[in-house]
Design a protein that fits this description.
Chain lengths: 197, 346
């Protein structure tokens, strides 16, 4: 479960299928597949004939999604490849298309950036967090982004400073803020603690 | 009134000082002997001559040096000034407001002549004489917000109003108290205030937002906010925390009077006429403890205020390492006498 009460972090309310949509576009990562499968249990599979599913993650989940026989199913080898395809699908999307994102927070954040850049209102996007609570973090000093951060502090993968992960999230960057933890007395950073398993 | 502009620095050798007159006009942020967050907004109307409220956009003896410091920060880090594409109308609103207010408050230093959309701006302290077409970006050397805020003291945020919220969609921040424009741009009012402790639970932001959504044109409001800074450093950004963070460990009983500064933000909020956005001015004033000590009322009050702070606030404002040293030093000026209400010197 994600920590609650961070004012700047989006609330991931759940994937809830909008059955009135003309098209459904899913971008799913890893355990995010389960969020879609759980929806089918509650609303049935009727919407799948209008659904395009983009997936990145282990083959075990891909198999379950493939069996759904949705209108389109496509798997990506990596997140950046999926994001490219998501952009293409959104550029071609028509009125009445509903976007759904599920997976880790870092994945949802990056997919949402693609959607925001194309002018989609973030309030209209259905999201559900699944999988690890690892964070995507921007170093406030060098501006480099480190993915899958599970500890605080952690070492910035770009400039090497030990960073405290602040509970402050930017939707525009799809990332939390990392701030040098021992700036006042360099060399005094505490040992990393796994806070986001 | 002619201002005598000081040549001084806010980094390296830190030659910044306040003249005796600048000390008297410092907007001391405490109206009583204790402090807690509140929706402390009041109409932004002109105040007494010789105070920081004399003009609605205040220009003081530090003007030229502050503008030099801003130019240095922007050269090192252009991301300190950003505007999302839909903010261009509000950028022009901002340019007009700042030019008009500076020209009205200080006609000997600034002039604005309008002939339809052909405008002529003269900034004598900075030696600028600019003819341009209002609304035509190609006639200025920068986009309008950056152009005018390179000539105006304080940080500036332009917040867009939609969906019953305020969105920080443009701004310039080179004199900020540890917040990142690059990180916060695009956030709404609740989001960018996310890291502030205690105030959310007190309902402060909910009430402040409701109040600001109804802000009217021609009726700006203001509030004072504060923190403390070691050395007179304007650029205490999170980006540069590794540069200024170590200063906090250098305070001793011997140097506290010279090193520790009270940092006051005179924040004013203005509804903009064309865009319906709000211009949020965050004007920073610095005063060292030795200077505070020359005003008996403030020297009595400040140690009392510092003692009254809840621990969350001490931590959030970064005072932990030097608060007690500062209280100890200031306490010799506190004879226990009562202080008069309000912020102004007796």
């Amino acid at each position: 479960m994600l920590v609650v009460g961070i004012k700047s972090r989006p609330v991931y309310k759940g994937l809830e299928i909008d059955i009135h949509s003309a098209r459904h576009l899913f971008a799913l990562e890893g355990d995010g597949a389960g969020a879609l499968l759980d929806q089918i249990k509650s609303v049935g599979s009727g919407f799948l004939e209008k659904a395009e599913i983009l997936y990145v993650g282990p083959e075990s989940q891909a198999g379950k999604l493939r069996e759904l026989q949705s209108f389109d199913f496509w798997t990506a080898p990596t997140i950046p490849v999926l994001l490219n395809r998501l952009k293409a699908s959104l550029q071609a999307a028509r009125m009445g298309t509903r976007l759904y994102l599920s997976g880790t927070e870092g994945f949802i954040g990056q997919a949402m950036q693609v959607a925001l850049d194309l002018g989609i209102d973030f309030n209209s996007i259905r999201t559900e967090h699944r999988g690890s609570t690892a964070r995507r973090v921007q170093c406030v000093h060098c501006k480099g982004i480190t993915d899958n951060v599970t500890t605080s502090p952690f070492t910035c993968s770009h400039c090497g400073l030990p960073l405290l992960v602040r509970d402050h999230y930017s939707r525009r960057l799809g990332a939390f803020q990392g701030v040098n933890i021992d700036a006042e007395e360099p060399g005094t950073a505490p040992r990393p603690e796994v806070l986001f398993p | 009134m002619n201002i005598e502009f000081r040549q001084e620095t806010f980094r390296d050798d830190f030659t910044f000082r306040n003249s005796p007159a600048a000390i008297r006009r410092f907007p001391f942020p405490f109206h009583e002997d204790s402090y807690m967050y509140s929706v402390n907004m009041e109409p932004h109307v002109k105040g007494a001559p010789g105070s920081a409220f004399e003009s609605l956009i205040d220009v003081d003896e530090h003007y030229i040096s502050e503008m030099n410091d801003r130019a240095k920060v922007l050269k090192e880090d252009p991301l300190r000034c950003q505007a999302l594409p839909h903010m261009m109308t509000s950028q022009w609103d901002t340019l007009e407001l700042l030019m008009e207010q500076q020209a009205a408050g200080y006609p000997e230093h600034f002039s604005l002549i309008k002939d339809g959309d052909n405008w002529h701006w003269i900034n004598r302290p900075l030696g600028i004489d600019q003819k341009f077409v209002f609304g035509d970006v190609s006639t200025l050397p920068y986009e309008p917000m950056e152009y005018i805020t390179r000539q105006a003291q304080g940080d500036f945020c332009i917040v867009d109003q939609r969906d019953n919220n305020l969105w920080m969609d443009a701004g310039i921040a080179t004199t900020q108290a540890d917040w990142s424009l690059d990180f916060d741009i695009g956030m709404n009012f609740m989001e960018w205030h996310g890291p502030v402790p205690l105030a959310h639970q007190l309902g402060v932001f909910e009430r402040a937002l409701k109040f600001l959504l109804n802000l009217q044109q021609g009726k700006p409001v203001r509030r004072l906010n504060w923190t403390m800074t070691i050395n007179p450093r304007l650029d205490t950004s999170p980006e540069n925390y590794p540069k200024w963070g170590p200063d906090r460990t250098t305070v001793t009983p011997e140097n506290v009077g010279n090193k520790v500064h009270l940092r006051c933000e005179l924040q004013s909020l203005w509804r903009l006429p064309r865009s319906n956005a709000i211009l949020f001015v965050i004007r920073c004033y610095l005063i060292k403890m030795e200077e505070v000590a020359t005003v008996p009322k403030w020297a009595r009050r400040l140690p009392r205020v510092l003692r009254s702070l809840p621990p969350e606030l001490v931590d959030y404002k970064g005072l932990t390492r030097y608060r007690q040293t500062t209280i100890d030093w200031l306490s010799k000026f506190d004879d226990g006498a009562p202080t008069s209400p309000g912020i102004f010197p007796d």
